[in-house]
Amino acid sequence: MRIEFSGAAGTVTGSSHLLRVLDKRILLDCGLYQGKDEKERGNDVFSYVPSTVDYLLLSHAHIDHSGRIPLLYKRGFRGKIFCTPPAKALAEILLLDSAFIHEQDAEWENKKRERKGLEPIEPLYRVQDAEKALTLFEAVDFGEEKTLFEGFRFRFLEAGHMLGAAITEMFIQEEERKVKLVYTGDLGNQGIPLMKEPETVEEADFLIMESTYGNRLHPDNQTEQEELVHIINETYHRGGNVIIPSFAVGRTQELLYILNEFQESGRLAPGVKVYVDSPLARKSTMIFKEFTQYFDEESQEKMRRGDYVLEFHNLFFTETVEDSMELNRTKKGCVIISASGMATAGRIRHHLKHNLWREECSIVFVGYQAEGSLGRIIQDGVKKITLFGEEIAVHAKIHSFSGLSGHADRKGLYNWVKAMRKGPKEIFLTHGDLGAATALKELLAQDGYNVRVAKNGDIVPIRDYVKLVPKIEETDLEKFTVATALSRLRKKEELVRYIETIDFSMVPQEEILKEIEKILKKQ
Ligand SMILES: [Zn+2]
User: Fold this and answer.
1) What is the whole-number distance in angstroms between the Cα of residue 322 and the centre of ligand 1?
2) 412 shares its domain with 474
3) Residues 54, 22: one domain?
4) What's the CA-to-centroid distance between 134 and ligand 1, angstroms?
5) Which of 60, 129, 248, 456 could bridge across to 281 with cysteines, CB 3.0–4.6 Å?
6) Domain, as residue range, for 305
7) What is the sign, positive or negative, of the torsion defined by CA atoms of 366, 367, 368, 369?
């Protein structure tokens, strides 16, 4: 068995890891590179041959995890794609939307190329590629075990990151070697509105783990929610608008939950009107409403009492472009939630153009802003930006909230690993900038974990590990003295390499301990 890291390694977007088990290839996610990653790495080339991939396990529908699936199809992939039922419903709208954007961008580009006398370009993929890719999807619910082939079973657990997001547990057997591999996907933050808490995994031999906020602690979620409402009320009284760039799926619905709560308790200024200006956000809110059984207990309890958590007075969903343009003319009293979440495309850019230059307005960032994105540029405090070929001054008040994040912070990630009854032999950190991943590596390594920051193109063979003979499997590992000794000595690299070659079923314990002593004396 081996793992090939082919995306979101040393960076946040483009999640994709290829497993080779026996003669099969299983892909974990197939995400789109965004922002600077897109410019540096491009989305056009796969590091594997798509037609040779047999299965795809999709952790969740966010485009940085799913966005290259239609391209995978276009290049010959015909295997099955598994994800949870809500993730399947959300992937449907997200992938069609992504395909539509790619078609539109290419069409726009081709008009310019035609005038220059250049050959037209093809979009990355088309709507029909997305439609066909969607026929390969199969839903597997949380907690259900599914066998892909002899030697490979998996199960989705609640990741608490967004509707339908899963941690994937994989039970792999190659001949007599058994390995349990866990892939966190995106791991949720504690106390995210609507979402359940991330489930703890009992044990893992190997762990592929996200590290987005490996170097940051989130402020308290509740305090930030209060602060958000304070900013909205203040901006309202100043006579401006609040512009919130937000991911259409997930973050927007969480914001609606928060605003619903403050609106119904009378703490949101009565004149404030909330507009969701994104067709995708409108569609995904409808999907959220279909899958309320996946919400956390608190939300379900509210709904049983008749408080529909995603609906409130003065909440509007715009439908047409004209509705959206009408908002551009409204000077005050609006909270406009619009996509894309990092302001790299979409209607949000128009709202920024019309409100950024006005000092009575507020721009509120509620999600991660990748390096190089317009969101990050504004967040970093520039005085002017260029939008639609026009220079726009930044006079509006800029606020950033990270406590509303869908990702666990440094403490959340650490605690999640520590909660495992039997920690992994090796942890591969992905989905984080180098600084974040390295900081988390250092934290975990202090506790004796064997951690590496995965790099793009890394190929990690997992073949030399201890054979798991039934005798050890049945024994409580904590009582197994050799195993305990080995786990304490995990840091000694040489020794570890030696230990990996031991077949415990063949060598008596005393002999192993003698060997260990010998090596330690030499060091
Ligand atoms: Zn995500």
Assistant:
1) 31
2) no
3) yes
4) 19
5) 248
6) 221-400
7) negative
- The band of 38, judged by pLDDT with boundaries at 50, 70 and 90, is confident
Please tell me whether residues 417 and 502 are part of one structural domain: no
C-alpha of residue 324 to centroid of ligand 1, in Å: 27
Task: Supply angle C-alpha 124, 13, 10, rounded to 5.
Answer: 125
For 382-394, the pLDDT digits (tens) are 999 999 999 999 9
| Cα(284) to centroid(ligand 1), Å | 15
Query: Are both 146 and 238 inside the same structural domain?
Result: no
C-alpha of residue 472 to centroid of ligand 1, in Å: 37
pLDDT, mean of residues 162-178:
92
> What pLDDT does 271 receive?
93
Report yes or no: 339 and 346 within 8 Å, Cβ to Cβ: yes
CA of 368 to the centre of ligand 1 (A): 10
> Both 435 and 365 in a single domain?
no
Distance from residue 325's CA to the centre of ligand 1 (Å): 30
Question: pTM of the predicted model, to two decimals?
Answer: 0.82
The alpha carbon of 161 and the centre of ligand 1 are apart by a number of angstroms equal to 7
Please check whether residues 489 and 395 belong to one and the same domain. Answer: no
Ligand 1 centroid to 406 CA: how many Å?
Answer: 7
Percent over 70 (pLDDT), the chain: 88
**Number of compact structural domains in the chain:** 3
Q: Nearest 5°: phi and psi at 153?
A: -120, 155
Given a cut of 70, is residue 252 above it in pLDDT? yes
Ligand 1 mean position, distance from CA 66 (Å): 10
Q: Where are the alpha helices (DSSP H) in 265-305?
A: 279-290, 297-304
Q: Are residues 257 and 234 in the same domain?
A: yes
pLDDT at 12: 81
What confidence tens digit (pLDDT) does each residue in 304-358 have? Answer: 999 999 999 999 999 899 999 999 999 999 999 999 889 988 899 999 999 999 9
Q: Using pLDDT thresholds of 50, 70 and 90, give the confidence band for residue 473.
A: very low
| Tokens matching residue 54 | 């047999």
Question: What spacing in Å lies between the alpha carbon of 239 and ligand 1's midpoint?
Answer: 35
- Judgement on whether residues 324 and 374 belong to the same structural domain of the protein: yes
- 192 CA distance to ligand 1 centroid (A)? 13
CATH code, 153:
3.60.15.10
**Phi, psi (deg, nearest 5) at residue 278:** -165, 115
Tokens 């570890």, located at residue: 496
User: How much is the pLDDT for 504?
Assistant: 56
Domain boundary among 400, 418, 433: 400
Indicate the residue among 432, 461, 490 that finishes a domain.
461
Separation of CA 289 and ligand 1 centre (Å): 20
Helices (H) and strands (E) in the chain, counts: 18, 22
